[in-house]
């Protein structure tokens, strides 16, 4: 029973495109590796990364000269970096970040066969490359996991105490929970995200479509509820499993999140212990139309000072003892809830709004043109009709 169920969960997890959407070749004039069927760019490196499980995975690294943060993107099923290439370059441009994307073992032109443990080795190899080749520091890194990519993302995240932030895009509670609505975690399950996410000490953004018929919205909502440091989630009305990028709110909300975490001072590197926390983020659940569906307050304690994010909503009813506990960081589980909005409202001018709308439209058209999923789930939704 356990073995067969585990095999079923694994079958859900891995759908590499057949054949791969790209090949790798060495450009004669430069000696650099390139991907076929995409325009070569000087700001994109193509790499082969050895893993501890003796596979070689293909990765791309997109530079942004103005970036201070780097995003490590773990893609979803039925996709490879050939299909994701244009998404990667557009995200790097619009979010002002460096970005690395990689193929799992057995995906694209990566060697080996996909498995849960191999994906963990794959993301470790990508992270090692970012550190050693590009000098990326842990505190300047954001991990992004889409669908099954939420598995390796959270596995790496729980081992990086100084990680800047995590983004979960249509994430899964676990492999088995996609198939069966089980109430407990079994030993043969894969990608046990539900058990890992409470251990994260960095801000987490969760994005999920309300009409996702592959991974139910309840997966994203439950993971968000389990986060220690909640950031305003994005529940996209009408969004399914493969088309969230075409909604203008997707890019807008991501940009808002990147901007917020970028303004925070990097976490203090404390050997062998997790940093304490003394600042806060507000959280509220919003839909695609930008309406607040319910207000949720959650204390985000950090050792880093707040960048004008936590002052507005403080209750003035704190007594002197509570203030003393806060200043000395001796009570990290302060139960008083504070209603605050750390994000504030957008203050863009009319021209900036129009410029952003054109940018989103171009990004949306590009996503439609490349197709993110071979499972044909990029179908028209009521929002698009």
UniProtKB/TrEMBL annotation:
Gene3D superfamilies, per the entry: alpha/beta hydrolase
SUPFAM superfamilies linked to this entry: alpha/beta-Hydrolases
Domain Serine aminopeptidase S33: 70-174
Biased composition (Basic and acidic residues): 285-304, 316-340
Listed InterPro entries: AB_hydrolase_fold (IPR029058), Hydrolase_4 (IPR022742)
Pfam families with a match to the protein in the record: Hydrolase_4 (PF12146)
Region (Disordered) location: 266-360
Domain of life: Eukaryota
Residues forming coiled coils: none
Protein name: Serine aminopeptidase S33 domain-containing protein
Organism: Trapa incisa
């Amino acid at each position: 029973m356990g073995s067969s169920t585990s095999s079923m969960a694994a079958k859900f997890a891995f759908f590499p495109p057949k054949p791969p959407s790209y090949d790798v070749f060495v450009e004669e004039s430069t000696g650099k590796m390139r991907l076929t069927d995409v325009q070569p760019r000087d700001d994109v490196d193509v790499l082969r990364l050895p893993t501890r499980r003796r596979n070689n995975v293909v990765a791309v690294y997109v530079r942004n000269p103005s970036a201070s943060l780097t995003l490590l993107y773990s893609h979803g099923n039925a996709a490879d970096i050939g299909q994701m290439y244009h998404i990667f370059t557009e995200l790097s441009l619009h979010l002002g970040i460096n970005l690395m994307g990689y193929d799992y073992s057995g995906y694209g032109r990566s060697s080996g066969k996909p498995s849960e443990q191999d994906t963990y080795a794959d993301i470790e190899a990508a992270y090692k490359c970012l550190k050693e080749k590009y000098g990326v520091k842990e505190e300047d890194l954001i991990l992004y996991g889409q669908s099954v990519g939420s598995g390796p993302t959270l596995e790496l995240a729980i081992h990086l105490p100084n990680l800047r932030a995590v983004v979960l895009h249509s994430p899964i509670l676990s492999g088995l929970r996609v198939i069966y609505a089980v109430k407990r975690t079994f030993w043969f399950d894969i990608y046990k995200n539900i058990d890992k996410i409470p251990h994260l000490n960095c801000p987490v953004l969760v994005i999920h479509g309300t009409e996702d018929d592959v991974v139910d919205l309840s997966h994203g909502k439950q993971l968000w509820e389990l986060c220690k440091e909640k950031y305003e989630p994005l529940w996209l009305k009408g969004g399914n499993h493969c088309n969230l990028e075409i909604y203008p709110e997707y890019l807008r909300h991501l940009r808002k999140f990147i901007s917020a975490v970028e303004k925070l001072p990097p976490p203090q590197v404390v050997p062998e212990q997790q940093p304490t926390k003394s600042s806060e983020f507000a959280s509220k659940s919003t839909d695609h139309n930008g309406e607040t569906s319910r207000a949720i307050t959650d204390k985000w304690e950090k050792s880093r000072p707040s960048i004008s994010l936590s002052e507005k909503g403080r209750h003035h009813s704190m007594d002197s003892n509570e203030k003393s506990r806060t200043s000395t960081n001796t009570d990290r589980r302060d139960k008083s809830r504070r209603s605050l909005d750390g994000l504030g409202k957008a203050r863009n001018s009319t021209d900036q709004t129009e410029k952003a709308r054109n940018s989103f439209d171009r990004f949306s058209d590009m996503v439609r043109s490349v197709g993110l999923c071979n499972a044909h789930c990029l179908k028209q939704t009521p929002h698009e009709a």
